[in-house]
Amino acid sequence: MHAPEQLLLAAPRGYCAGVDRAVQTVERALELHGAPVYVRKEIVHNKHVVETLRERGAVFVDELDDSIPEGAITVFSAHGVSPAVHADAERRNLQTIDATCPLVTKVHREAIKFAAEGYTIVLIGHAGHEEVEGTMGEAPDRIVLIETEADVDTLEVEDEHKLAYINQTTLSVDETRGIIARLREKFPHITGPRTDDICYATTNRQAAVRQMADQCDLVLVIGSKNSSNSNRLVDVARDLGTPAYLIDNADQIEEEWLTDAKVVGVSSGASVPETLVNDLVAFFRERGTEDVREFEVLREDVRFMLPKQIRQAMTAAAEA
Ligand code: 0O3
Ligand code: SF4
């Protein structure tokens, strides 16, 4: 069995402030209101997190349907929801708690503002992703989705003087920069947010992997298959020519990846708890790797307040 000589742990990695807030929202809701707590979609795109919360009494549903009893506590996931989902919840008298990340809400606000001013909005993002569905729902008639630079070339708009762009928060920094440059080239009057909408956590995790990857023979990114930001970390390493794989845990490592790997870099997506990194480190230590180092490129200090329904319920519980 081959053991790498050295493990590098990219920092920052793992939970961002929006994920921490969303997961805590479900945990607190379970403590304050008891099980079951309904959650629309996966609260964050991580198998382990979802499974752990399910064991504690969270019930994950794909849509708000009749399986949710009237009046039930229902949490919206970190990726955001469209106004139609809010309206549906209201019709069903659900007690909703919105765990949408404030940085996703910021993109929704941009969409609302541009739409109100009569702009056509180009949304850069991945088709079918929940965040994209939520954002598009703010102005379905005004938003057109593009995914690549090639999509810019075929894009036709009615009035290029009334054109704006926004983007999904978890995209590749480099790719998005390229798409925006292409948009500006083709539509010189296009407007957008002051900076792009890629969030601090996405940017920082990619920056750390970018710096770490050329010192590694292999990069392992912990994250689930449907996690956009985790997949982008794999892309960053591969673009630099370093083999990289996305894994939920050590069971998914294939022996042949390790054959010539002296230095293995590890990172984890924004929806990945640190326990999973610790488990992976323990796996390599058991095989004989002794040299385990942090590879820190910067520190983060971002925190978000819990949703107001949770804060109010916590205050009420403390006073009771
Ligand atoms: O958006 P993504 O697939 O990366 O979602 P994750 O893995 O749950 O990570 C949190 C990101 C998020 C809630 C939207 O920005
Ligand atoms: Fe918010 Fe960024 Fe985390 Fe998404 S990745 S939940 S936008 S902080």
UniProtKB/TrEMBL annotation:
Family membership noted in the UniProt record: Belongs to the IspH family.
Active site: 131 (proton donor)
Biological or metabolic pathway of the protein: Isoprenoid biosynthesis; isopentenyl diphosphate biosynthesis via DXP pathway; isopentenyl diphosphate from 1-deoxy-D-xylulose 5-phosphate: step 6/6; Isoprenoid biosynthesis; dimethylallyl diphosphate biosynthesis; dimethylallyl diphosphate from (2E)-4-hydroxy-3-methylbutenyl diphosphate: step 1/1
Database matches in InterPro entries: LytB/IspH
Keywords attached to this entry: 4Fe-4S, Iron, Iron-sulfur, Isoprene biosynthesis, Metal-binding, Oxidoreductase
Cofactor(s) in the UniProt record: [4Fe-4S] cluster
One Pfam family it belongs to: LYTB
Positions bound to isopentenyl diphosphate: 45, 79, 129, 227-229, 271
Protein name (Swiss-Prot/TrEMBL): 4-hydroxy-3-methylbut-2-enyl diphosphate reductase
Function: Catalyzes the conversion of 1-hydroxy-2-methyl-2-(E)-butenyl 4-diphosphate (HMBPP) into a mixture of isopentenyl diphosphate (IPP) and dimethylallyl diphosphate (DMAPP). Acts in the terminal step of the DOXP/MEP pathway for isoprenoid precursor biosynthesis.
EC number: 1.17.7.4
Catalytic activity, reaction form: dimethylallyl diphosphate + 2 oxidized [2Fe-2S]-[ferredoxin] + H2O = (2E)-4-hydroxy-3-methylbut-2-enyl diphosphate + 2 reduced [2Fe-2S]-[ferredoxin] + 2 H(+); isopentenyl diphosphate + 2 oxidized [2Fe-2S]-[ferredoxin] + H2O = (2E)-4-hydroxy-3-methylbut-2-enyl diphosphate + 2 reduced [2Fe-2S]-[ferredoxin] + 2 H(+)
Residues binding (2E)-4-hydroxy-3-methylbut-2-enyl diphosphate: 45, 79, 129, 169, 227-229, 271
Residues given in the record as dimethylallyl diphosphate binding sites: 45, 79, 129, 227-229, 271
CDD domains noted in UniProt: lytB_ispH
Residues noted as binding [4Fe-4S] cluster in the record, renumbered to the chain: 16, 101, 199
Alphabetized Gene3D superfamilies for the sequence: 3.40.50.11270, 4-hydroxy-3-methylbut-2-enyl diphosphate reductase, catalytic domain
GO function terms (MF aspect): 4-hydroxy-3-methylbut-2-enyl diphosphate reductase activity
Note accompanying the cofactor annotation: Binds 1 [4Fe-4S] cluster per subunit.
Species of provenance: Solirubrobacter deserti
